[in-house]
TrEMBL record, chain A:
It catalyses: a quinone + NADH + 5 H(+)(in) = a quinol + NAD(+) + 4 H(+)(out). It is a multi-pass membrane protein. One of its GO terms (molecular function) is NADH dehydrogenase (ubiquinone) activity. Belongs to the complex I subunit 6 family. NDH-1 shuttles electrons from NADH, via FMN and iron-sulfur (Fe-S) centers, to quinones in the respiratory chain. Couples the redox reaction to proton translocation (for every two electrons transferred, four hydrogen ions are translocated across the cytoplasmic membrane), and thus conserves the redox energy in a proton gradient. The lineage of its organism: Bacteria, Bacillati, Actinomycetota, Actinomycetes, Streptosporangiales. It comes from Streptomonospora alba. Keywords: Cell membrane, Membrane, NAD, Quinone, Transmembrane, Transmembrane helix, Ubiquinone. This is NADH-quinone oxidoreductase subunit J. Its main location: membrane.
Automatic annotation (TrEMBL), chain B:
Keywords: Membrane, NAD, Transmembrane, Transmembrane helix. It holds the Pfam family NADHdh. It comes from the Bacteria. GO terms for biological process: aerobic respiration. Belongs to the complex I subunit 1 family. GO terms for molecular function: NADH dehydrogenase activity. This is NADH dehydrogenase. Its main location: membrane. The keyword Cytoplasm does not apply. It is a multi-pass membrane protein. InterPro entries: NADH_UbQ_OxRdtase_su1/FPO. GO terms for cellular component: plasma membrane. It is found in: Cell membrane; Membrane.
Amino acid sequence: MAEWTVFVVCAVAAVAAGAAVFRVDSMARATFALLASFVFTAVPVLLLDLAYLGVLIVLMMTMEMVVMAVFMIMFMMNPAGLMPMTMVHNTKGALAISIAVFCVLAAGALLVPWPRESAPPPADPTLQLGEAIMGDDMLVMMVAGLVLFATMVSGVVLATGRGRYDRYGDDLRGRPDDPIRGGVGR
Amino acid sequence: MIDADDAVHWWGLVLAPALLAAYAYAAAAGSAARTARASGAPAAAALAAPAREAAGLLLRRRRTVPGADTLLWRVGIASVPVAAVMAVLVVPVGGRAIADLSIGVVWFNAMEVLLWGGMWLAGWGANSVWGLVGGYRYLIQGLSHELPHMFALTTAAVGAGSLRVGDIAAAQQDVWFVLVMPAAFVVYLVSALAMSFWPPFDQPVGRDLSGGAAAEPSGPDRLVLLAGRHAMLAAAAAMAVPLFLGGGAGPLLPGWAWSLLKAAAVLALLVWAGGRVPAVRMDRFAEVGWVVLLPLVLLQALAVSVFVVAGWM
């Protein structure tokens, strides 16, 4: 009963915080509403005895949202992303896409043959889940990880205002021309 | 999440915050006494200075800036002491923690990362340029020290083969981890200073920014922010004991006394070092963190992994 109550409260709160992302008028509130939604999502994961994954969701999502705040300042057209704004763009197209995605996900939830027997949960569900995801698809996961990382690095390289040609000159020789020298004396 | 080993000691929910507050006050009194002695004033009189300052802050009326995002601002400020208290839930004193979770190390890490969001909100919510710059300074520092810090925690967990803080302390029966993994210990101490923006990493609340993230909070808000910062330093010092200093192990005295003594010693070391080391600029520390500390602690993790695989520990 207690678990059921916690689940319902967190599920409703996660959806409400997710909806708030599109209702608030500041980038900071949208960012932290999204973080709240993720934290509420982590609680049902904890209820599934997946302690490691649940706490990891809180850890990674907090860092991710805050790093997003850094990138807002660096790259957004609206400096700092601090002015009143809206997260809703292209309303008609977005509505069509979100209805379609919702239908697909809801159909998946309804059509998947969920296990019926009440077998006792395994001793280490995190290990079981990890083997289920990573066991056969390790190669795919590793390639996906590398692609994600390469995308991040190239995104930063493309967006940076001062590349190595600005720092070292056209022949890439000599000492870097930096306004502030790095901490290790280069 | 809570199985038999994860039993929650509810009595500790009263005791742990009280202990944390006592240690946080000791850190504040210690640094006040140090400052007083450096300026020639009697050091003993300065021991009560933090209490006087706290009382003054409690009586002072809040001021605010037009356009401040009050909700996010308050949430950010409150999250600093809350994160510190939540972090010590998994820290054992003499072998007993409030909740010795099976993933205690990850829990501790997650709680301290909450400060990233909290400090940015505390800076941003005030609608003041000083606060905003202070909040971003904290993030830049965090980006520089967080990965070395995580690998320092990981190294201790690898050495014990467990993410449970109690297991890590128990694994140091023969030799303390500070001797096996000194680089990880040093990196942990550096990041403990940085995560609680303690000198020399106090640029987020630096004087050149008129107080940075702490410039606008006034009255009780300011008290909560500054007390939380001291509590975070105390929490990080307390966590160093089970991770690297053998937990409650020691001769003669009972385990809880050794845990408290060692935590006090680490806290005193951090406060002393904060007063001795010149300020570290966060833009320079970024390179130090990524080019020096991260490879160093990765090599340390590699060495410890080899020890574990070879069966030497």
